[in-house]
Design a protein that fits this description.
The complex is a heterodimer. By secondary structure, chain A is an all-beta fold. Chain A is 0% helix and 54% strand. Classes of the chains: A mainly beta, B mainly beta.
Chain lengths: 112, 114
């Protein structure tokens, strides 16, 4: 089955700087890669996703890149703000199965 | 904006008791899921449900677990005889299509088994 690795597990960044979180996946059939943000005690919320027919996607300060050959994808947050502090999870899925496989999460702390 | 809603938000139960966690998925969604998250760990898939039957389940989803869509709106997860290790946050999710489309999560039910 699919296995998703995520690094780093914790990340502290000065406000205004950029943050990068990286994930690798094992199943070459995976074709959908969402990123979820989870604030303390709250539900995971989708912030951006990318499909395997695209190499990069951007939404304001958030971007995701995908390298299918290397089987890794990354989340980039620019101009970080205190409200970006949360746990971020990457995930992978393919059309052949019904589940999202999540990474282990990155706790991002923005230092004012 | 439509939301997935879950009840209760917190459930405390004694070991060996049965619990039912309830979810109301987004109304036009066809795929329903249960995930769980043990405190401080990653979100883990339990089961997916489509067309009134289980379409996929994980090894965590053993005979103690069952799911049901008793009417047109509710989706439930039953744990028959709870164990201490069942303590976790349980998230319901729904999506319009299969897992490679956006899944919307409920706010979760924190289950504490004592």
């Amino acid at each position: 089955g699919e296995n998703v690795e995520q690094h780093p597990s914790t990340l502290s960044v000065q406000e205004g700087d950029s943050a990068v979180i990286k994930c690798t996946y094992s199943d070459s059939a995976s074709n959908y890669f969402p990123w979820y943000k989870q604030e303390l005690g709250k539900r995971p919320q989708l912030i951006i996703d990318i499909r395997s027919n695209v190499g990069e996607k951007k939404d304001q300060r958030i971007a995701v890149t995908l390298n299918k050959t290397a089987k890794h994808f990354s989340l980039h947050i620019t101009e970080t703000q205190p409200e970006d502090s949360a746990v971020y999870f990457c995930a992978a899925a393919d059309f052949g199965n019904e589940k999202l496989t999540f990474g282990t999460g990155t706790r991002l702390t923005i230092i004012p | 904006e439509p939301e997935v809603t879950q009840t209760p938000s917190h459930q405390v139960t004694q070991m060996g008791q049965e619990v039912i966690l309830r979810c109301v998925p987004i109304s036009n969604h066809l795929y329903f899921y249960w995930y769980r998250q043990i405190l401080g760990q990653k979100v883990e898939f339990l089961v997916s449900f489509y067309n009134n039957e289980i379409s996929e389940k994980s090894e965590i989803f053993d005979d103690q677990f069952s799911v049901e869509r008793p009417d047109g709106s509710n989706f439930t997860l039953k744990i028959r005889s709870t164990k201490l290790e069942d303590s976790a946050m349980y998230f319901c999710a729904s999506s319009e299509a299969r897992a490679n489309t956006e899944a919307f999560f409920g706010q979760g039910t924190r289950l504490t088994v004592v």
